[in-house]
User: Which sequence fits this backbone?
């Protein structure tokens, strides 16, 4: 397919074709096409070699730049790390001192609150014991009243129950007497 395309690249004028002849014109076109192909291939190879050389130069330059940047960043990281470690030590020292101060203040406050609360507990305990004694006295009195009322009601319920039991048993005796009388009249 490339040969057909190459034939069309070089068109000989009719006058030159007539003087050379058809076969010689074709050979001339083939020679020119072959020279063009060879020149293109040489050009592609030359451009490829130049590109590879340039690529290697750029790569080498970039690798050197990366190495330089890496070294610079590592140095800066080491500096920043050193500064931060020093700052951390300072902050730690300050905070430990502050913690000691706060601890002392809070322990003192805890002692004060404990003393206040123990005093308040003693007061509340005394008040509650007094109130318990009052409530106990009131409840004992109320229990005695309720007990008396319940004893009266139980006595009344007992009397009422005996009355109703008497009525029930009298009714039963009357029914039994009536049944015995009926049975006696039926059997006779």
Assistant:
């Amino acid at each position: 397919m490339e040969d057909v395309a190459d034939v069309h690249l070089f068109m000989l004028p009719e006058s030159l074709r007539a003087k050379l002849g058809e076969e010689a014109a074709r050979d001339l076109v083939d020679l020119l096409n072959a020279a063009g192909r060879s020149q293109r291939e040489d050009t592609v190879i030359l451009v490829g070699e130049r590109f590879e050389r340039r690529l290697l130069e750029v790569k080498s330059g970039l690798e050197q730049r990366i190495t330089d940047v890496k070294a610079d960043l590592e140095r800066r990281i080491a500096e920043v790390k050193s500064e931060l470690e020093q700052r951390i030590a300072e902050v730690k020292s300050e905070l430990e001192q502050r913690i000691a101060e706060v601890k002392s203040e809070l322990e003192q406050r805890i002692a004060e609150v404990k003393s206040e609360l123990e005093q308040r507990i003693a007061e509340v305990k005394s008040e509650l014991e007094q109130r318990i004694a009052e409530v106990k006295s009131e409840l004992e009195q109320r229990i005695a009243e309720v007990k008396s009322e319940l004893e009266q009601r139980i006595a009344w319920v007992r009397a009422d129950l005996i009355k109703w039991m008497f009525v029930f048993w009298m009714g039963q005796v009357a029914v039994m007497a009536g049944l015995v009388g009926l049975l006696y009249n039926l059997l006779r």
Remarks:
- The first helix runs from residue 2 to 9.
- The two ends are 150 Å apart (CA to CA).
- Residues 2-187 form one domain.
